[in-house]
Amino acid sequence: MRFHDVAEPVRHLVDPARRTEQILGQPFSNPASVLDWASPSHIVNEFVKQAIGYDIFGEAAQAFAGDWHQVWQAAGACRNLAGAMQDIGINVSAGNVELDAHWQGNARDASYDYFARLSAAISAQQLALNAMADAYEKAAEGTYRIAETVSGIMKDIVDAAMIGAVAASAGTATIETGVGFVTGWGVAAYEAYKIAELAARARRLIATASALIGTVAGEIQAASTSTGILARHPLLSHPYQHPAGGTA
User: Fold this and answer.
1) Against a cut of 0.90, is the pTM above it?
2) Among the four residues 82, 101, 111, 176, which has the most C-beta atoms within 10 Å?
3) Any long-range contacts for 187-190 (C-beta under 8 Å, 24+ apart)?
């Protein structure tokens, strides 16, 4: 007998959207601008290192480097595949019902039970795949927004470091006057204090992003174990042999 699909799984198997116009209801800014502070001049970077004792630019760049749009696309690919798996399960289930109505014999019940479990296992893959999509979206959205906030802080650090470096240089150049030395290094010390406060804020946000990624990685790993359910479903080793000699 000929079966007719009631759903179209292939319609879901398209390329995921390259990007979304919004994340969390807010429009994307230029992705390149998020890390445009990542290459400060040597004098700025050295002033910051001397002020706080560590390379905050390197820490932030390491935490947020990466193509988060690719992560967003991974979520779309998982959702598309989830829709396809659901439709495949629907087709197997519909075919099973149709076959059951036309098949008589001892193997009928066993066949119906087998294909019912198979269709359920196929359709159930959508749950794990959608859970993975949710996790990828959480990673992309959360990290991107945290990166934007850190970007603003890092730009403030660059501004403060430039002022501080210039003030320190001016103070050193006017050391013989006394007044110029005190004024210049006083400004430099104030900017160094501002940098320390800003860097501490940036570090807290970096830690938040790291915790978010750790949580998401666990969610993806947990969901991925569920995608193996279908692989554990026993497949027929050979076609059904009808007692009369036919093959089904």
Assistant:
1) no
2) 82
3) 187/163, 188/164, 190/164
